[in-house]
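just leaving the lab so this will be short. what follows is a protein written twice so to speak, once as letters and once as structure tokens for the fold. can you read through it and tell me how you think this chain folds. anything you notice is useful, everything is just below:
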Amino acid sequence: MKHVTVIQHTQSEWLGHIEDHLEARGVRFGYVRPFAAGGRIPKPTTIGDGLILVGGGPWGTASAGYALPTLAEEISLVRACLMLDKPVLAMGLGAQILSLAADGKTEATPLTFTVGNAHRTFRGALDGYLPEAFPQIIYMRDRPIPAHYADILAVDAQGHPMAFQIGKNVFGFNGHLGLRRAMIEDLIMEFEDHPENTIVNLEALADVGADIEDALVPIMTGLVHLTQWMSS
């Protein structure tokens, strides 16, 4: 049975609907919470069959005064996973960390909450499992600029990368693939800093909850296949 390490950056953001897909496939996972008392970033040697990085609310990587406290350690960990050919799934703030670890960049942007769609850039993306369009709910400060060699899997209406792949088993998504509305509500309560128009976007998010779950089915099928999290 495969085991995946999950790094959680806030109390509010966790795997959400992704948990159901991993459990249904017999993939075990364990959370690491460096923000909690006694929490620390794991060593590369303790990462078994892969690493998942979830979002970070108002934390960022490029905006002055908002850098994630464990940023340098996490960049080092992800870089080690790349060198060891460990699968990585990085979402939100995690995608920024992945971009920096893989010699890409990040761009300073205000804390943003948007409810929109990402659009696939080519038919074979995610081994053919990535939907032509799928929800991408962004609650994030700053954004990743993947390295030139990364494959851009999806973009938003403005052409910004929304999903990218590095090698055969490393993936970054700007939005949280398994997002539940309660996560955003909890983030708003957990931190004083939050975007404008949160009420309007929470209402919009309520309308796409089923679309998020529907899109996650093929996306997780592709991810589990390419990361080999179900292989013996």
